[in-house]
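Human: Here is a favour to ask of a fellow structure person. Comparing notes only helps if you start from a blank page. I am asking you to supply a protein in sequence and structure-token form. Write it directly below this note and I will take it from there.

Assistant:
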Amino acid sequence: MKGGYGTTAEERARLLEALDRHRLHQSRPDLSLIWGTVCEPTSPHADPSSFVVDLRQPPDGWTPTGNLLVALPGKWTTAWHCADRVVDALI
């Protein structure tokens, strides 16, 4: 929230809203979140970006793979922002 993480309920609500906003109609009441550790760059400067790759059309040097996205949140990027970019890649 405001550049940081919200509670599990708040972050879950953000993900459901993103799915509904993009009309994917896959938001379900039983959507679960698994919190984990994110690797961050070793630079002192904030990196507000996130990297999302659709492996159906991968960049050069990556192996094409159907039905798989790779999402790497950048430093200071909240999970909901990266999740929203994943939803954008799906549509």
